[in-house]
Each structure stands twice: as structure tokens, then as C-alpha cells.
């Protein structure tokens, strides 16, 4: 059962690009996707910047093949999952048991919001079509159907760590011989529900976020989807191209400290990282790059930083938060960042942490500020921390 | 590998919580909505915390804590929940607030508690459990995925027990919306007469059920889970049969080994056709009972069915109130739960005596 699981396909859509090449290009050029809100109808558009995918629902509809009235969450999911699936070549192999494990926190609530305005005025009003796919699970189902995947379909929702847990679950379905190949990751559209939710929590930066900066002032929300295609060694051997990397470690722990904030010493992130390292059989000094959760809030970065210090001191790997580019894509973030992690290994690159002016004084380490090429990246650690204390870490390793 | 159900607790529209009697008397409803019978929570949860909790959180947390207590487990090695709708009441409160206040909602409490993983997180927080914590929101396969996750964990390293739960709630808003979609009976119906109405629609239901699963026997387990499987939108009855055949084959049992079938009939004539067809063919010789007249129809109702099946095995007795036909077998050692929800997800759960 301890057979390895390989990443053989990647797909992503985010505020910095509609596919893998566009996102890589923006990462290299240091182009953040954050800006004034253009597509979401919200009163906060002049005050709160966000990293929207730069396509209207009509444009997303054309690319995804869904009707323009479909939830944006589903259209983003379809575009990234299809890119990953096509990229893997697994869809050309006959007779495999395939699965789609997708994560989301918002699901179809973007359409429910539209429904609600009419519904609240009169309970017999509001288009039922707009609430048909309210449930996160329905978003996954309609995308799976379009992808032609039927053997296993499931949806995970553990707040901001959702897609890390989807990737873990997908890997374990392969190890337990329930499926042969899985598209795993997550999707979330920017919605008024989440924008207002985070706004009432007073954790949104009115400027562009500055993860791991001493003067950081909160997060910017983003939207997008990111998926990896995971397969067993047997399936990997049937493919023409080399896998991007292997998923060698993962661990899920709960901080059990507070519903929305993480413990001061970062117990949850510490346990998640430590557990993932133990599973992969690696020591902290073997990690070459950490893709930080790094939201830019006071609490997250202090807590995650403390956990990194406890585990890595004095051997700090290179690290950065790509949320400085994509904003926080919530249920999609660990999927988007898994794609970036796999690409970091395949291309030997490290992404910069944008807008870092004054590294946090509490720690003896600082994130990278430049795009680094020709790096030998053997092992990448990707962190996720969510509401409800849900912390998960993944380790991707070069073959 | 066998998975042992060490304890099982549910809050449902029946008197199932803190009641040593097993469905000896059924709660009757004359409505298309069955509502959970809630206990006094003050014994189980700190009253200061109760005030902030929505109904689904209270019902779930109380069931989870009681389940751990019954099993004598202070802190499990994992907590996994499954819920199709999540915390609907809080979602509705925040959405309403947001729309009515024109995007200036005053409090984040409902937003924070609307997150789908709130229940798993609240349980972890209350018992300070740092271990694995996951939540599935896979529609009517949410509970099944949670159990699958738990069974995989129990086969992996470092996990001896897992707390698994399935829960969904009805809110006034969700009932209004789902009624508009045509899911429920248009006329008031007695739940105890649900299967004789011969009409369209079912009755709305809800519930929270938790199980403490272990990978070793305790000598005092309710039952074992031998296997669980789901399949998605089968083309026809032949495909359904094929899935059931291969499930039973993978568990090494024949149809004749099944002592009791628990079916997901919900009183909607069209919905129930598939059960009828199977009961005229592959299931024809197996005694069967229904359960949705007890808890109503909802996506995680199989958690209630699992509670029911496990208790039937433990007591070796079907509550008199549920018997359709005279069960021919003296010993009920294998129970198969077969359910489908709107013909999207179908699920099979095989329980056995330990």
C-alpha cells in the first residue's frame, strides 16, 4: 500500500493567468493579478482589491463549455481540470478507473447570491436555476460529467486547506486501489459572500497584501482553480512523458485552538509540516523550497513563521507566498499552489514573494524576493492553514 | 479489513438520543417536514457555547461527544464528517444580512460558522483533538466518503479509531426552496403512512449521526462495516444490478447471505421504482425494511440507516414498528443498506455482526 503517487498533469487558472504558461510567465515577470474588482458586482469594488480571473462569465462560458448562467466556480474548475487532464495524457489511456476529487468553500453561492435578492423580497421569486448548484458537491458533479469521469467523484471542504485535503484523499484512493488516476485540487470563485465575510472579520488589506512583511495588513482575496493529475507507478509507466514529480509526503493536523485564528506557536502548521516530512522520510534540511500559506494576515504569518522556525532552525529553505500574486483563492489555494510547486521542481525555479519591504523581525529568515532560475529543487513543501484549525502540508519530490 | 462500530449516536426526528429503548414507539408527523427531536444540551455542551451554535452544530456536537463517551474514547485519532448542505442556517443568516444591509453585515459570527468544516472543527476544539480532521461535501455521497476516508485511515498507520459523522439540517429557507423544486408531497401526509400514499414527492428530513469506528474488536461492538461503495448516475437498472453484484463479489458474499435489506424508499412513486424492480429480482428473497418514514429524505440519511442497521444487528431484532414482512431468519448477521438520492448517487453499505 505504500506505493508512490506521481503528478503527471497540472492545470491552473488564477488572477495571473488562464492556464499554466500564462501563470508561469506572470510569476517570472513579477506581475501580480491583484487589482480593482472588475467582474464581481459588489459595493466594495473601489475599496477592496482582489485577484480576479480576468475573464467575464460569458468569456469563461466559451472556454469551459458551460452555459454563461452556470456558477463561476464550476467554470473555473472545468478550465483548470481540463488543462490538467489533457496535459497528463491519462485521458488517452483506456480502461482506467478515474476519479475527480475537487475542493471548494463557496460552491455555487455566487448564483445563490443572485437568487437571494429576489427570494428575500418574495419567497416565491428567484430563479430556481440559480440555486440548483448551490452545493459544493454539485459543482464537482457537473464538472466531472463534462470531463467524462464517473468512477469516483467527491468533494472536500475544509476552508482554506480544502484542496490540500482533496489532493491527499486522491492520493490515498490510488494507494488503496480504489482508482487508478485522479484529478485532485480545488476551485473557488470570488463571491460577495466570502468578500463580505472576510471583510467583517477585518482581515482584508485595502492595499496589495504583503505576506511575511513586518508591516503586513491583511489578505487580498483571489479566485481560481488548480488541479494535479495523480497516478500510480503503473499508470505513470504507461505515459510517454516523465511525471512532474512525486507526492512523497502529506499530513493533516488540527490546531484545535480557535475557530478562525491559529495558535501563537503554530502548533497546527508545525504538526502538519512535521508529519509530512516524517511520511516522506525527509529531514527539514532536505526541503529546497516552501510554498508558504502566507496570507498576509497578522495571525497567519506569525503563526506559520513560528512553526517554520521551530521545525527548520537553523537550516531555512528558500520560501515565498505566491498569494502575493494570486491573492488568497481559499478552497482553490492549495490546488493552485500544488501546481506551482510541481512546476518549481520541473523547471528548477523559485517564485518571488512580492512587495516584501521589511521582513518580519520576529524571525531569522525572510522569503525570496526575486524569481530564481536554474535551481536544483528536489523537494517542495506546500502549506495550508484554514478556519477551524484545519492544517495540511504536502511534499512534492523530484524523481 | 473489518471496521468495528464501537458506538453510534443519532439525533433524528425520532426519540433516538439518550433513549435506551430502540424505536419502540415511533414519532408521527402530519407534515411534509420531519424535524429532529432535540435533547437538553446543557449536560453535553457548555451553555455559554450553546448560545452561539446553530441547530445543526448543536445536534452534531452533542451526538459526537455522546458517541465518544459511549465508546470510552477521550480523543479520537481522526474526525471525519460528511454533509451535503453544511451549516445552512448560518449561511442563510449571513446571506440575508448581507443582502438586507447592502453588503455591510455587522457580525462575522454567521459567516465563520457557515463554513462546511465547522462541525468537525468545533468537536476538535472542544476536546482539543490535534489529529486528522476532514469534511466531505459530496452531496448524497458525503457520509459514504467520510466512512471511506475513515476505513482507509484505519488501514493506514497510527490510526486505531475514527469519529465519523453525517449530518444535514432543514431550515425554513431550504424547505421553501426545495418545496418549490417539487421534492415534497403537496398534501399533508402521515410519515407512518408514507409508503401507501402512491403519489409524487417525499417528506423532508434531517439528522446528525456519529460513529466511533475501530480497526480492532472491543468485544462489545454494535456491528462491523464490511464494505461501502457509491456509484454515480447509473444508466438503468441493469447497471445498478451490475454495481451491486460487483460490490457483493468484492465482499465475498451472495445475495442469499443477506439477512436484511434496508432500502431508501422515500414514498415518491418514481423514486421508489428502482427499489421495487430490484426487490422483484435480485433482492426478491431478502426481508426488507424502510427507514425514511422515520427520518425523512435528506442527502446524508444513510448515516441514520447505518445507525439503524447497526442497532438491529446489536439487538438481533428489528423493531416491531418497522417490520414489513415476517423475517425468516433467526439471526440477523448481515444487513445491506441500499439507497439512492434522486438517482444521482447510489450507495451500498454492508454491515455484519462482529
Characteristics of this structure?
heterodimer, A: about 400 residues, alpha/beta, Peroxisomal Thiolase, Chain A, domain 1, 2 domains, ten-stranded mixed β-sheet, two-stranded parallel ribbon, 12 helices, 12 strands, B: about 350 residues, 10 strands, about 20% strand, globular
Describe the structure.
The complex is a heterodimer of chains A (about 400) and B (about 350). Chain A is an alpha/beta fold and about 400 residues long. Chain A folds into 2 domains: about 5-240, Thiolase/Chalcone synthase (Peroxisomal Thiolase, Chain A, domain 1), CATH 3.40.47; about 250-395, Thiolase/Chalcone synthase (Peroxisomal Thiolase, Chain A, domain 1, 3-Layer(aba) Sandwich). Chain A has 12 helices and 12 strands. Chain A has helices spanning about 20-30, 55-65, 70-90, 110-120, 135-145, 160-175, 190-200, 235-240, 265-280, 300-310, 325, 335-345, and strands at about 5-15, 50, 100-105, 150-155, 180-190, 220, 225-230, 245-255, 290, 320, 380-385, 390-395. Chain A has a 10-stranded mixed beta sheet with strand order 4-3-5-7-1-8-12-11-9-10, sandwiched between helices. In chain A, helix 2 packs parallel to helix 3 (about 70-90), helix 3 runs parallel beside helix 5 (about 135-145) and helix 6 packs across helix 12. Chain A starts with a strand and ends with a strand. Chain B is of the alpha/beta class and about 350 residues long. Chain B is built from 11 helices and 10 strands. In chain B, helix 2 crosses helix 5 (about 120-125). The radius of gyration of chain B is 20 Å and the shape is globular. The two termini of chain B are about 10 Å apart.
Amino acid at each position: 500500500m505504500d506505493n508512490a503517487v506521481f503528478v503527471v498533469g497540472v492545470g491552473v487558472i488564477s488572477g495571473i493567468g488562464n492556464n499554466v504558461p500564462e501563470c508561469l510567465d506572470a510569476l517570472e515577470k513579477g506581475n501580480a493579478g491583484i487589482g480593482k474588482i472588475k467582474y464581481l458586482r459588489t459595493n466594495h469594488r473601489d475599496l477592496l482589491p482582489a485577484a480576479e480571473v480576468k475573464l467575464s462569465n460569458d468569456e469563461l462560458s466559451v472556454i469551459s463549455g458551460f452555459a454563461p448562467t452556470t456558477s463561476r466556480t464550476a467554470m473555473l474548475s472545468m478550465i483548470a481540470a481540463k488543462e490538467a487532464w489533457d496535459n497528463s495524457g491519462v485521458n488517452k489511456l483506456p480502461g482506467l478507473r478515474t476519479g475527480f476529487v475537487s475542493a471548494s468553500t463557496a460552491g455555487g453561492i455566487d448564483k445563490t447570491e443572485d437568487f437571494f435578492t429576489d427570494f428575500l423580497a418574495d419567497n416565491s421569486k428567484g430563479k430556481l436555476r440559480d440555486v440548483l448548484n448551490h452545493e459544493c458537491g454539485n459543482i464537482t458533479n457537473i464538472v466531472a460529467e463534462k470531463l467524462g469521469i464517473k468512477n469516483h467523484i467527491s468533494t472536500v471542504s475544509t476552508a482554506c486547506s480544502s484542496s490540500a485535503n482533496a489532493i491527499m484523499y486522491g492520493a490515498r484512493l490510488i494507494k488503496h486501489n480504489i482508482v487508478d488516476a485522479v484529478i485532485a485540487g480545488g476551485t473557488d470563485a470570488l463571491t460577495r459572500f466570502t468578500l463580505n465575510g472576510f471583510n467583517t472579520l477585518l482581515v482584508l488589506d485595502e492595499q496589495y497584501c504583503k505576506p511575511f512583511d513586518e508591516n503586513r495588513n491583511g489578505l487580498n482575496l483571489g479566485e481560481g482553480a488548480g488541479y494535479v493529475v495523480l497516478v500510480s507507478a503503473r499508470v505513470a509507466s504507461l505515459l510517454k512523458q516523465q511525471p512532474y514529480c512525486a507526492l512523497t509526503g502529506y499530513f493533516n493536523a488540527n490546531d484545535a485552538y480557535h475557530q478562525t485564528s491559529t495558535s501563537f506557536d503554530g502548533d497546527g502548521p508545525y504538526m502538519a509540516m512535521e508529519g509530512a516530512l516524517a511520511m516522506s522520510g525527509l529531514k527539514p534540511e532536505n526541503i529546497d523550497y516552501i510554498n508558504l500559506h502566507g496570507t498576509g494576515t497578522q495571525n497567519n504569518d506569525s503563526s506559520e513563521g513560528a512553526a517554520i522556525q521551530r521545525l527548520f532552525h537553523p537550516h531555512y529553505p528558500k520560501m515565498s507566498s505566491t498569494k502575493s500574486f494570486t491573492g488568497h483563492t481559499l478552497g482553490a489555494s492549495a490546488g493552485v499552489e500544488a501546481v506551482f510547486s510541481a512546476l518549481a521542481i520541473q523547471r528548477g525555479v523559485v517564485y518571488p514573494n512580492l512587495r516584501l519591504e521589511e521582513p518580519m523581525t520576529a524571525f531569522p529568515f525572510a522569503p525570496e524576493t526575486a524569481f530564481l532560475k536554474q535551481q536544483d529543487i528536489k523537494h517542495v513543501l506546500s502549506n495550508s492553514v484554514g478556519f477551524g484549525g484545519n492544517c495540511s502540508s504536502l511534499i512534492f519530490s523530484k524523481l | 479489513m473489518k471496521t468495528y462500530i464501537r458506538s453510534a449516536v443519532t439525533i433524528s426526528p425520532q426519540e433516538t438520543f439518550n433513549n435506551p429503548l430502540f424505536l419502540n414507539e415511533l414519532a408521527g408527523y402530519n407534515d411534509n417536514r420531519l424535524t429532529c427531536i432535540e435533547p437538553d444540551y446543557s449536560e453535553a455542551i457548555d451553555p455559554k457555547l450553546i448560545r452561539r451554535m446553530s441547530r445543526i452544530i448543536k445536534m452534531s456536537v452533542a451526538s459526537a461527544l455522546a458517541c465518544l463517551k459511549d465508546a470510552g474514547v477521550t480523543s479520537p485519532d481522526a474526525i471525519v464528517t460528511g454533509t451535503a448542505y453544511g451549516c445552512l442556517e448560518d449561511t442563510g443568516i449571513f446571506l440575508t444580512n448581507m443582502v438586507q444591509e447592502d453588503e455591510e453585515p455587522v457580525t462575522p459570527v454567521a459567516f465563520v460558522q457557515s463554513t462546511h468544516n465547522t462541525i468537525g472543527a468545533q468537536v476538535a476544539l472542544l476536546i482539543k483533538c490535534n489529529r486528522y480532521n476532514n469534511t466531505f461535501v459530496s452531496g448524497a455521497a458525503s457520509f459514504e466518503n467520510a466512512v471511506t476516508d475513515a476505513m482507509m485511515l484505519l488501514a493506514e498507520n497510527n490510526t486505531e479509531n475514527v469519529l465519523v459523522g453525517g449530518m444535514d439540517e432543514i431550515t425554513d429557507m431550504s424547505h421553501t426552496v426545495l418545496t418549490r423544486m417539487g421534492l415534497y408531497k403537496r398534501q399533508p401526509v402521515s410519515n407512518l403512512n408514507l409508503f401507501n400514499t402512491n403519489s409524487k414527492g417525499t417528506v423532508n428530513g434531517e439528522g446528525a449521526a456519529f460513529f466511533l469506528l475501530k480497526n480492532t474488536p472491543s468485544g462489545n461492538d454494535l456491528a462491523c462495516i464490511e464494505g461501502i461503495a457509491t456509484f454515480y448516475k447509473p444508466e438503468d437498472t441493469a447497471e445498478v444490478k451490475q454495481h451491486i453484484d460487483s460490490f457483493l463479489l468484492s465482499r465475498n458474499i451472495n445475495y442469499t447471505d443477506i439477512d436484511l435489506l434496508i432500502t431508501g424508499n422515500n414514498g415518491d412513486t418514481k423514486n421508489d421504482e428502482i427499489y421495487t424492480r430490484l426487490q422483484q429480482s435480485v433482492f426478491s428473497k431478502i426481508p426488507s425494511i424502510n427507514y425514511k418514514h422515520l427520518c425523512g429524505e435528506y442527502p446524508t440519511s444513510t448515516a441514520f440507516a447505518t445507525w439503524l442497521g447497526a442497532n438491529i444487528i446489536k439487538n438481533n431484532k428489528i423493531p416491531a414498528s418497522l417490520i414489513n414482512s415476517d423475517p425468516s431468519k433467526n439471526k440477523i448477521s448481515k444487513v445491506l443498506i441500499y439507497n439512492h438520492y434522486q438517482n444521482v448517487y447510489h450507495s451500498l453499505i454492508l454491515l455484519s455482526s462482529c
